[in-house]
Every structure is written in structure tokens, then in C-alpha cells.
Amino acid sequence: MATPDTHTAPAKATDRPRGLQYFPIVLFASAMGFSGTTIAAMRIEPLLGLPPAFSLLLLTLTSLLFIVQIFLLLYRVFAYPEEVRRDFDHPVRMNFFGAVSISFMLLAAAYLDVAPSVAAVLWWIGAPLHLLITLAVLRKLIVQSRFEIVHYNPAWFIPIVGNLIAPIAGVAVAPPDVNWFFFSIGIVMSVVYIPMFFYRIYFHNPIPLKLLPTFFILMAPPAVGLVSYVKLTGQFDGFARVLYGFAFFIGLLLVVLFPMFYRVPFFLSWWAYTFPSAAITIATVLMYHETGVEAYRYLAYVQMIALLILLVDFSRRTLGLMARRELCVKED
């Protein structure tokens, strides 16, 4: 099978079929990004002594965005099931179905202090759905014979990371064994997936430019794992410090690799920058609360500013695609 060409330019959007049947499943990464940013804002506001006005505005915008995306996905499922099936057969796009259920669980975490009953409903939709998606994706990977090591990329972490997100709101709405079940899936499978990724990067062809933003997903498992671990155990110990340390190291590695990301033209995959950036911001706030070290508080401020810049810029670029009717186009 031919390996992906990292330099071949994709066909122009104007040359491809378009319509709502091609609504990109990848765009659910924006719902994850908005949800994560909302939660990060909720954690930052008390540090600044601010009322929750901004985070509530973000929560409203995030909820509306997610409702629109869910409606469009359901429309595709019933009107164009073959296109949905085509996405699920793709080695990259299939993983973004996990972003749907993750968004339910992130919204549950965001609503936990605002409307606990709403949070419970969202979680009990999102968590079982995510388990089903995780099983479906892993089954496909096991029984298929088309995917090769060159197809492996950080987007494959999405169904895995979602299991680590479940306990964040789950500790308030589900039995402990259920939350530990999800955490065990996420933490053990992350240990499996991370060396696979570095093997693929070190010894095989470079990842296509379009997928370079997914490198940021590597920061999510340890950052989210830290938050979930502390929620589950109620303690901050050496393992928690290891999780944050590795997340911080991945962040430093991404900074070193910044010139590589800078040359990538805008794709919807850029939204993969946002949720991991929100996750490390939330983890840094947690580190400040647990250690009292002031450096973590100021680092969280810097991370939050960078996160908001990303959110505004990507929103502007995505709206530009909509205005040019280049958002819902057929993918290769």
C-alpha cells in the first residue's frame, strides 16, 4: 500500500462536491475545545477574583455550538448513512466520533456546578456512548486488514483519552467502580498508544502536514489523567506529579517543534490544538491548588491567554470557511 505523501496538496474545496452530507466529523474537535476552554475559565476566574460571567457566556456558546453539531450529525445519520459509514471507515476520521461522546462528558463537567441535574443527564448519555465508540473503534482496528503503521497518528488517542475524561464529572453522578473502570481503560491504553506513536514517528514516513496539529493530542492523556486521578483518589501524590510532569514535558516538546506547526496551512484539524491546551491549563490550576506554588498560578494565566487566542483565531478561520462555502466539502 502506498504511504501518505506529506507534500501533495489537497484538491481545492471548490473542485469537490459540497453539502450538509459532508459535514465534517472533525469539527466536533471544536466542541471539545470550547468545552475545555469553558472549564478552564471556570477554574481561572476564582484565582482572579472574578465573577463567573465570562465562563457562563462561554458555556452558553459551547452548548449552542454542540446542539447545532449534534443536529447536523443526526441529520447525516438518517439522510446520508453511507457518508457517515465512509467517515467511520477512514483511518483518521473514525477517531473523531469519539469527540462527540467526549463533548457530552466535558459539558457534564462544565454544568456540574451550574446545573447538576443537566450534568448527570449529559454524563449518562456521553459515558456509555463513549464506551460503545471505544469498543467499535478497537474492533475495527483488530478485524480490518487495510490500515498500516503509516496510518497511525495522534488522532487515534481520541477514543482512548475520552475514558480518562469520564471520572471528572462521573465522581459526582456515577458509582466509584464505574469511574475506575473508565479510568483504567484510558490510563492503560495510553501506556500502549504512546510508544506506538513514537515508534511510528521515529522509524516511518513523516505524518502528513494536515495531521501535524494532532500532535497536541499527546498532551491530553497525562493532563486529563491527573485531573481524573485526583478526583478519584482525593489525594495528590507522586503519581499525580508524574502525570503533570509528563504533560508539561510534552508541552515543552511542542514548543520546540513550533516551526513545524507554523508552516501548516489552516485545516479543521487545527482544532486539535484547543482541547489539549485547555487540559494542561486546567491541570496547571490544579497543581497550584495542590502545591501552593505561585509559579503554577502565573503559568496558568499565560496558558489561558494562549488558549483564548487559539479559540478566537480558529473560530474566525472556521467562519471564513463557512462564508466561502468550503466547510462541508467531500473529503478524500
From TrEMBL:
Major site of localization recorded for this protein: membrane
Superkingdom of the organism of origin: Bacteria
Ranges that cross the membrane: 22-42, 54-75, 96-115, 121-142, 154-174, 180-199, 211-230, 242-261, 268-289, 295-315
A GO molecular-function annotation: monoatomic cation efflux transmembrane transporter activity
UniProt-annotated location(s): Membrane
A cellular-component GO term for this protein: plasma membrane
Keyword Transport (UniProt): no
Topological relation to the membrane, as annotated: Multi-pass membrane protein
Sorted UniProt keywords: Membrane, Transmembrane, Transmembrane helix
Protein name: C4-dicarboxylate ABC transporter
Species name: Hydrogenibacillus schlegelii (Bacillus schlegelii)
